[in-house]
Amino acid sequence: MNEKLLQYLWNFKIFKSFDFKDVSGNSLEILNFGKWNFDSGPDFLLGKIKTNNIVLAGNIELHVKSSDYIFHQHSGNPEFENLILHAVFIHDVEIEELNNKGIPTLELKAYIDESLLWKYESLLKENQFIPCANLFQAEKVPFHFWEESLLKKLDEKSLEIEQALARNKNNYEAVLFQTLAYSFGLKVNASIFLQLAESIDYSIINKIRQNQVQLEALFFGMSNWLENPQDDHPKIWKREFDFLKNKYQLSDLRFNPKFSKLRPPNFPTVRLSQFACLYHVNQNLFSKLIFAKNIEEIYALFEKIKASEFWNNHFNFGKISPIEGEKSLTKDFVDLILVNAVLPLKYTYHKNSDENIIDEILDFYRKIAAEKNTIVTGWINLKVKVENALQSQAILYHHKHYCEKKNCLNCGIGFQLLQSHQ
C-alpha cells in the first residue's frame, strides 16, 4: 500500500463496505468524501462526515500509517486546522493532537479488498509490454478512450506548435515548413532537418520555390554536401547554392544529416529532394492543406511528389545505384506526414474559430491507416483492434504517458481493471 493508491481508493470510493467505524468503535458515516487536492494541504477538501449524531464539514487527510501525520510534520501546520477526519490504512499510534481536538481516525485496512492490492502491486512490479498485460482485457478499454487520448495528443502537439508560432512571429507558413521538415527527417534526422529549416528565413523559400533546382541546392548546400561536387548535376547545385548564399546572405551554419541505420529510400538526400519537390509543385501548400475538406484533397497534394531525376539512379552523391527508378512518396510515408505534421497544425489553426474542427480532425484520422510499429503490434497482440490512425495515435500517446510511466491510477483502462476486482 502507498498513499497515492489510498487516495485513489478514497476518491473513487472503492471499498468492500461503507459501514465505517472509527478506531474507538464509533459509527462513522461519510456524507461527502471531499474533493481530491493536488496542491499543498489536506488530501481531500470540503468533505462532510457524521459521527456521534454530529455532522462535521471540513478537510480529510489520508496516510498509510497514523504515525505519518507526525513524520510529515502536519502538527501545528495551519493548513490542517480545519481537519475533520484522519483516514489511514493502518492505525499504528495515537495522535494526541487529533484526539484532543476530537478528530476521529478511520482505519481502512479491513474495508479494502486484498485482491485489489495484489493487482496494483503486480502492475508496479511486472516488467512486460504494459504493466497490466497479465490482467488486461480488451473489453475494459473505455468507450471514448480513443477520441479522448487522441485529443490529448493533439493538445500536446498544439502547444508545441503555438510555441513555434511565437518564435516565428505567428507565421503559420514558416511553422508548417519547419514541421514538415521535421517529419521528413523521420526519427534519425528529424531534429537535424528541423534545425536546417529553422536556419532558413521562410521568405527565401517563397522567393525560390518556383525553381526546384534552387530549392534542392539550398537544402543540399546547407547539409554540407556540395563542397566538392564530382558529377555534373551536383556542380549545378553547387553553382546555385553559391548564388543563393551571396544573394540572401545565408547563414554559415551547416548541418550533417545521418545515413546510418536508414534504408536507402529514407536517405536524407532522397527525402530532401522530395521535400523540395513538395514545395515546388504546390505553390499554395499551406492554404491547400489547412482548408482541405476531405482526406482525398490532402492525398492529392502528395501524389506527384518525387525526388528529382538525378536520384533515379542515386541514393547518395558520387555513387550510381544499380537499382533504378523514380523515388516517389509511398502512402505509408504520406500517412506519417499527415498524422504527425499536417493534422496537428490544421487542428491548431482552426481550434479557436471552428466549432466543428474536432469532429473533422477525428474523421481525418479515422480515414488514415494505422501505423505499423512494435508498440501498435504489442496492443494488437493483446486483442485490441487498431484499425486506423485515430486508434494507433491514441495508443501511442497512451503508452508513452501512462504505460511507460506506470501511471496506472490515472489510466482509464487501469481504472476499469481495478474496478473489476471483485
Could you describe the 3D structure shown?
The chain is 48% helix and 10% strand. With 422 residues, the chain is α/β, with parallel strands linked by helices. Strands 1, 2, 3, 4, 5 and 6 form a six-stranded mixed beta sheet that branches. It has a two-stranded antiparallel ribbon with strand order 7-8. It is elongated and about 95 Å long. It starts with a helix and ends with a helix. The mean pLDDT is 92.
The average pLDDT score comes to 92
Q: Which term fits the overall shape?
A: elongated
Roughly what fraction of the amino acids lie in strands?
5-15%
> What is the SS-derived class?
alpha/beta
How many strands, what sense, and barrel or not for the largest sheet? 6 strands, mixed
Q: End-to-end span in angstroms?
A: 18 Å
Gyration radius from CA atoms, angstroms: 30 Å
The sequence of SSEs as H and E is: HEEEEHEHEHHHHHHHHHHEEHHHHH
The overall strand count is: 8
Number of continuous helical runs: 18
> Which regions have little confidence, pLDDT < 50, spanning 5+ residues?
none
Helical fraction equals 40-55%
